[in-house]
Write a structure and sequence with these properties.
Blueprint (H helix, E strand, L loop, with lengths): L26 H9 L8 E4 L1 H11 L4 H8 L9 E4 H15 L4 H8 L6 H7 L5 H10 L8 E8 L2 E8 L8 H20 L7 E3 L9 H7 L4 E2 L5 E6 L12 H14 L8 H13 L7 H7 L4 H10 L4 H17 L6 H7 L5 H12 L3 H12 L9
Parallel strand pairs: 5-6
Antiparallel strand pairs: 1-2, 3-4, 4-7, 5-7
Helix pairs in contact: 3-4, 4-8, 5-8, 6-7, 6-10, 11-12, 11-14, 12-13, 15-16
Length: 386
């Protein structure tokens, strides 16, 4: 059972009471916790954070090498460092004492280079919307150093982004590691859309510090929960629908295919995914199906379907795109269908829209791809006129 979170005030001068209701972790988190209910913080992770911290501390004049030696961990300013989760807290606290910066993790998050979440972050930066981008980070999180998870979900008119460690217990990596993790995710979301967002709530797995004014300023909220089971933040629901400023469909297609090829085979098949794909395929001749249409066809509510897709790290838009692409390739291999008929079967308003989409998927117009496909299937045979 989850402990009830205590009510805290943001700092001594504040008379604003913060949320006291229990913070419910994501479904993925609960599933992972159920597998290891007696977990301790002796989990060893490959930390991307410590090299960043050591580099930052050295530039500020602190002897981070000595701190690493005392903690019995390797010293490095690049790559990853293997470290027990419970050791991170003592290391980061010691660095904080040397720097005399209570919230140095926020500055470290602002200065961190891109690529902390590997291929998932790269794929996300070319998505259409913030929600699609974060679903991709969520989906490909298993490709970053083991045990670390990022979860994106919708609930109660908000979107929630959580970060936790599989098998880890609060306070996870301690205050500074937790603050860095949440701040870097928050900054990443703002980078995606180019909008100066403000969080509605933030939560941390460590006890409340004496002064939270720096956190209030950074995240734009006084609603802060401490002693939670995980770290994260919430935004108004509309934030998930904001367009990604660097969206690029062609680049996105290539990167998604590459990232999918890196996932374990067990991640590629899901009964719900197959059901959604089937409903999408059946609905396409009537036009591009919406989430509402597909949910109704599956006999469930729109929000229920959306939640279940999020729990599986699946984007509805990506699923529709994938079904259209696979059907397009199948139909064009069939000489009985003209390109115009294929466009109609896939729910496109006209052949030009289909041609643009197909060129984005394959790099070639439909007629050119069909011709080349026939040549590959029958080498040495003359081309068949279209």
């Amino acid at each position: 059972m989850l402990p009830k979170l205590r009510t805290v005030t943001s700092h001594p001068s504040s008379d604003v009471a913060l949320h006291a209701a229990p913070l419910r972790p994501s479904g993925l988190y609960e599933a992972e916790r159920a597998e290891s209910p007696d977990a301790e913080n002796d989990v060893t992770i490959e930390s991307l954070f410590l090299p960043l911290l050591f580099s930052y501390a050295e530039r500020k004049g602190a002897n981070a090498r000595a701190v690493a030696f005392e903690a019995g961990v390797p010293f490095a300013v690049l790559g990853t460092i293997p470290v027990r989760l419970d050791a991170i807290e003592s290391i980061t606290n010691r660095i904080g004492e040397l720097l005399d910066e209570p919230h140095y993790a926020l500055a470290l998050a602002d200065g961190a280079a891109r690529g902390l979440w590997g291929v998932g972050e790269l794929v996300a930066r070319f998505a259409d919307t913030v929600e699609q981008a974060m679903i991709r980070v969520d989906r490909y999180a298993r490709l970053i150093p083991p045990f670390q998870r990022i979860a994106w979900s919708r609930s109660g008119g908000q979107v929630r982004c959580s970060f936790y460690v599989v098998g880890g217990m609060p306070p996870l990596g301690g205050r500074h590691w937790n603050e860095f993790s949440v701040a870097r995710l928050f900054r990443f979301v703002k980078e995606l859309c180019g909008v100066e967002l403000k969080a509605t709530t933030i939560w941390f797995a460590h006890p409340a510090p004496a002064d939270t004014s720096a956190l209030e300023s950074y995240f734009g909220t006084t609603q802060i929960i401490f002693d939670a089971q995980e770290n994260g933040f919430a935004l108004d629901e509309h934030a998930g629908d904001l367009p990604v400023s660097s969206a690029d469909a062609a680049t996105s297609r290539v990167l998604v295919e590459y990232a999918d090829s890196l996932l374990p085979a067990s991640d590629s098949v899901d009964p719900l995914e197959a059901r959604v794909q089937g409903a999408v395929a059946r609905a396409l001749p009537d036009g591009a199906p919406t989430l509402v249409i597909v949910a109704k066809a599956l006999g469930m509510g729109t929000r229920t379907l959306q939640r279940r897709l999020l729990e599986r790290h699946l984007s509805f838009m990506d699923l529709v795109e994938g079904v259209r692409k696979n059907l397009a390739l199948s139909h064009l291999r069939n000489p009985a269908y003209s390109v115009s008929e294929v466009a109609f079967l896939l729910g496109y308003a006209d052949g030009r829209a289909f041609a643009r989409a197909f060129a984005r998927w394959t790099g070639a117009p439909p007629l050119v791809w069909r011709r080349d496909e026939r040549r590959r299937a029958s080498p040495g045979c003359p081309s068949v006129a279209e």
